[in-house]
Specification:
The protein is α+β, with helices and mostly antiparallel strands. It has 13 helices and 36 strands. The strands form eight sheets. An eight-stranded mixed beta sheet has the order 29-30-32-31-33-34-35-36, sandwiched between helices. Strands 1-28-27-26-25 form a five-stranded mixed beta sheet. It has a four-stranded antiparallel beta sheet with strand order 2-3-4-5.
Length: about 675
Amino acid sequence: MPTHHFPALAAILAAASSLLHGAAAAAPIPIEYFFEQPEFSQALLSPSGKYLAAKVAARGGREGLVVVDLVNNSARKVAQFSDADVGNVHWISEERLLFDTEDKRLGLRDIEYGPGLYAVDRDGQHLRQLADRSGATLRERSIRTLLPWHTFMLEQTGAQDSDYVYVADRKYEWPGVLRREGLLRLNTRTGQSTAVLRPADTEDWLLDYQGEPRLAWAFDKGTAILYLREAADNGWRKLHTFDVYKPGSDAFTPLAFGPDKQLYVRSRQYGDKAAVHVFDSQSGKISKEPLVQLDGFDFSGRLIFGKGKLLGVRHLSEAWETSWIDTAMKKVQDDVDARLPHTINRIDLPARPETDNVLVTAESDRQPPLTYIYTTQAKTFNKVGESYSRIDPARMAPQQFLRYKARDGLEIPALLTLPNGSKGKKLPLLVLVHGGPWARASIWGWNPEAQFLASRGYAVLEPDFRGSTGYGSAHLEAGFKQWGLKMQDDVADGARWAIAQGWADPQRICIGGGSYGGYATLMGLLRDPELFKCGVNWVGVTDIQLMYSGHWSALSDLSERWREYGMPQLIGDPEKDAEQLQATSPLLLAARIRQPLLLAYGGVDRRVPIYHGTKFRDAVKAYNKDVEWVEYAEEGHGWALPKNRIDFWGRVEKFLDRNIGAGAKTE
């Protein structure tokens, strides 16, 4: 397999490409290798496939934007800032790119501006700022040529065939809570924009295959209202309504408009698992036969169009994979997989190919993402970049996707990571509980948290307990109103299952997690004190009633609609279920937690404001002398800054070592 590198790009990345192997291999892998910013990310082919854009950064430096000419293998840095990092990037034409910025050296407390908006030609010429980065009203008024700070890129790329692009104009009720989202058509060379007519107080939009706004949706209390525009010069008409939070409703999620103008949607209307269906805009009904249906999983992903037809589907099962409908693309995938047999290889195509270049992202449980250019005719690979070049895959740990039975017979999907080189027997175990809880953790692939813990000798079990998404409506709905109850049983049953398999030492098991996972950590210590010897809770809920009532000291980013229509059904009604919510709120039971505990919170967290942590800390410390507290004053709901990620996981390492690791006292 011929493999080549780009000399110019290598020079740009030289400061970020030293690999530490050889004699140093026996030393512990430095913690910063796992939690630093990626050196190379967000690679994108131009519409023709002749050029590649990507974000790059020298180690410890700012992320800039590079464009590689794939014809002559030359690279040029086209955008770089001294006070910000390049954020999201899109090609808007063969000549021009759109991007925003972020500051990865500032936490939420210190951010005083929006992401801004910029456009630049692929040769670095004609860089233009389009939206203000400041949130100050006076500054907005003083810079009349710029759009206001609340102008954002869409996730959708649009037509990619002119200097025009659609961008979102967002208005907020308060920080983090969207009130409505308008749409602007923006000329990236002149900065002039025109507003798209809104059918209501819209909160999201869907562009069609030609890149024009065709679908919009709004909300009225707990009801979603979808609007359709048949053509660019037509008005909007109401297409469909459904109850967002009612199980078994005719709800669906719009995915894409195809070249055939059909609307493809994700729906559970005809089965337990969400599948891809066609929505008939005339009859207002979903096709009964699914277009894409996965065995054992909800559909999550996107449709891949090209050559005027549906080519394939990117979907999540045990890992992110691609199923190709197009015969030629199946052959390309087979060729790539034969040459990269130890990774899952995701292929992305240019919008209007004029070359035979495709983009390949290769990843596994042990290998952080690698990026290649593959030429389908010559069958050659050009290695473009590594996200974490200091990670040695040979030293990473194997990970497996599995399922175990909960006490009531429900199958619980999970990931198990075992330390590299271990025999996998009677290991110290950390049960890592994901947040959400309406989310999914068990996605096979390289995970810095699990790999760091495994590198220190710990087995890591990550269960997708009932209430997790991705496994069908029955699995999801089994978690309704089960905070601290059956959801908690699933986590404990996973630890006991690991003991029964011989993987976990029953005397050396700890529980940890963030957000809902932090809540489950505290409830695990309360409900199963003989099983869990210690707990690590970061940004975790401590009192369910506080989620409804809030606190004078902080604004929450939970919307009133979610509090009124979503939380009562999924968590519990604060009045009707008050007794249950009190019985499952760790704050009210703090006196019973006697195991060692590490608590970490963000000072400006709007999802789980810090009063959840301080109130619980004060309550538990009256009875438990082994409580470690850390506050990252500038952080929100999780650790955005590498320095804080490194500090936190360093604390976790020491905490686990003295409680269930090599430094733990044994009886």
